[in-house]
Amino acid sequence: MSKINLLGFTLEQLKSEFLKTGLTDLDAKRVFPWIHVKLAQSFNSMSDVPLNVRDFLQSNYSIDRPECSTVQKSSDETQKALLKLEDGNCIETVLIPEAKRTTVCVSSQIGCPIGCKFCYTGTQKFVRNLTSSEIISQIFFWKDRFEKPITNIVFMGMGEPLLNFENLSNTIELLLDEKAHNFSRHKITVSTSGVIENEIINLARWGIKLAISLHASNDEKRSYLMPINKKYDIKTLLTAAKKYQKISRTDHITFEYLLLKDINDTDSDASELIKLLKFIRCKVNLITFNSWLGSQFIGSDGNRVQNFLSTLLSSGIRAIVRKSRGNDILAACGQLKGRSSR
Ligand code: SF4
Fold first, then answer.
1. 84-95, pLDDT tens digit by residue?
2. Per the CB 3.0–4.6 Å rule, which of 15, 52, 171, 269 could disulfide with 28?
3. What's the gap in Å between 116 CA and the centre of ligand 1?
4. 209 near 254, Cβ under 8 Å?
């Protein structure tokens, strides 16, 4: 039987897990910082934990990171790792170093059931949600091997994070916990395709940043690009976004807008977008399309991108063209694709 991996356990969860086995709260309090602050890779190295407890942990639990199949490095220093999970499935995670910060892009599912037409990950069969340990292990993986501190986390890898809400929440709790990874809430972003239910609202209690993949300014185009829009249309999505903003007290919501040639990049698309967003404190990230083999779309040309940007800016909407990273190793937005064994 495989051992239970403890990387994704919050302190309270660790205490109740230990209680079941006869270990104490004090044992949990001693082990927890070894895992999350000192990044111990074996129970044996936990020098203030009694030897018999270490032996017990060694026999019954693990703090192993996933096996690394490959790491590719882009010409712009972005790195993409293919990690092999215990069941043989693979996921991808990306490290994006910049002058003043280093961001890790985390996957939350194997494959993705949402099936956005422009997304490479969406072409991969959905297999399952990642466990909390598998999600946070991606951050451990980069912390173990990258010499500079990881400053930002974005849940923008494979999968729709809000469809794996419980494990996402667990991971966020560990990232924000000052006795664990101690990230500021301003440094964590969850990106969603707009899965509403109660999840967007429930997420707000963490006060972290929310990015919404909008990609179109009317329901007809959005439903074509993102079938999830047939269930949760733009009006419903924006209502949820406003509620999120109110509860989370975040400064702004980010809307991601992928510019696709002759699909959603015209002047009238820009005008519709302005009408939609003028009542919400937001920032628009315009994204240039990262092509992949078999994709049916072409990215908008440079002039179109600039026109779209200027139209938004002149209407008073905050907007930027997001710099694409790791294109040459398929590490950019919407390009991740692990391997599923089923
Ligand atoms: S864009 Fe996100 S939600 Fe859509 S298919 Fe890709 S991974 Fe899934």
1. 999 999 999 999
2. 15
3. 6
4. yes
